[in-house]
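EI: anyone free to look at a 64-residue chain?
SC: sure, send it
EI:
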Amino acid sequence: MSGIVAFDVGEFRGIYPSIKLTDQQLNNCFSKAEIILNNTNCSPVKDLKERKILLYLLTAHYAT
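SC: here you go
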């Protein structure tokens, strides 16, 4: 698979309902996650589903 993972705030909130940050704050946390895990076609994690899980976990980590 190729491509990037798009951050879906609504989906993220459904997975992590206890995180109560603003959309802007969550988008910032996702941007930080992309610094740790490359979210381009050059990413070492080629499977987009797996990369999405990892990026969302990193986002949740930053958000908490």
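EI: The CA atoms of residues 15 and 57 lie 10 Å apart.
SC: 👍
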